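Running this now, will post back.
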Amino acid sequence: MSSGASASALQCLVEQLKLEAGVERINVSQAAAELQQYCMQNACKDALLVGVPAGSNPFWEPRSCALL
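Update: finished.
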């Protein structure tokens, strides 16, 4: 690798680190509490918790009865 290419790679790395350093961060405990609150507020809309009504399930294969 040439010195110009490595200098360019290092410059890109420095720019990326500057961007990451500027990101606002919160405590894990605060993030966990907010996530738990969001989950509890939206639990009634979660299809994995309450199920999908049979009439509105797009994956339900319609059954047909054919007499031979």
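DSSP finds three helices and no strands in the chain. More later if anyone needs it.
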